Amino acid sequence: MPKGADAPRDQLPQVAVAGRSNVGKSSLINWILRQPLARVAKEPGRTRGLGFFLVNRRFYVVDLPGYGFARVSQQLRAEWGREIHRFLVDSDRLAGVVCLLDIRIGPTPLDQELQRMLVDAGRERLVVLTKADKVGRSARAAMQRTVQNDLGLPKPPLAVSVKSGEGRKELLAELSRLLAMQTEKQRSDGDGTEEADQ
């Protein structure tokens, strides 16, 4: 499991992507970046560390291990939990967390636990419903309302589909918003990113 010393040492902002195993996390990362960076495994729960992907020398996408299905020991699972919690709570480069939910399933207890952690830590969260092509329009709208209410979101979550391409533009716009907010925060804190560009 990567420790703090293994994370990038530059000042560039980071956006983490989290979700249950088998929610389509690696596929979504590759779809957004249009590069096969995240490994798409046939068996869920194969991501076993924090993956940092540098994008256009401007920011990092951080691939978090999926939760819920990993066939690992309780000790390793506990270590993952501690290390990920430390990263999500303490990282001063983290612009926000993209939280993926399967649109056919909605929030599970583990998803809700992650949401509580992010809210308690004061983190920006962007909830995204994956696999939107798998349900009809009415079912999609109903799930968006349910998730908004259950997770206390200010607006309905985005619905995206890697297969159909739907929602990519909107998701990119939201990522840009998070990154702009983080860049402004770092500047106001007197911790600009100029040295990272040299």
List strands and helices in order, with pairings.
Blueprint: E1 14-19, H1 25-33, E2 51-55, E3 59-63, H2 74-90, E4 94-102, H3 109-121, E5 125-130, H4 137-151, E6 158-159, H5 168-188
Parallel strand pairs: 1-3, 1-4, 4-5, 5-6
Antiparallel strand pairs: 2-3
Please, could you describe this protein's structure?
Strands 2-3-1-4-5-6 form a six-stranded mixed beta sheet, sandwiched between helices. It has helices spanning 25-33, 74-90, 109-121, 137-151, 168-188, and strands at residues 14-19, 51-55, 59-63, 94-102, 125-130, 158-159. The longest helix is centred in the last third of the chain and has 21 residues, at 168-188. Mean pLDDT is 85; it is low at 1-5 and 192-198. The chain has 198 residues and is α/β, with parallel strands linked by helices. Strand 4, helix 3 (109-121) and strand 5 form a beta-alpha-beta unit. The chain has a single domain, classed as P-loop containing nucleotide triphosphate hydrolases (Rossmann fold). It has five helices and six strands; from the N terminus they run βαββαβαβαβα.
Work out the strand percent.
15-25%
Number of helical regions: 5
SSE run = EHEEHEHEHEH
Oligomer: single chain
Task: Give the class-level CATH name.
Answer: Alpha Beta
How many strands, which pairing sense, and closed or not: the largest β-sheet?
A: 6 strands, mixed
Mean pLDDT: 85
Q: Identify the overall geometry.
A: globular
The CA-CA distance between the termini, in Å, is 30 Å
Q: Indicate the CATH architecture.
A: 3-Layer(aba) Sandwich
Poorly predicted regions: 1-5, 192-198
Number of domains: 1
What integer value in Å does the Rg equal? 16 Å
CATH topology: Rossmann fold
User: CATH H-level name... which superfamily?
Assistant: P-loop containing nucleotide triphosphate hydrolases
Structural class: alpha/beta
- Count of distinct strands: 6
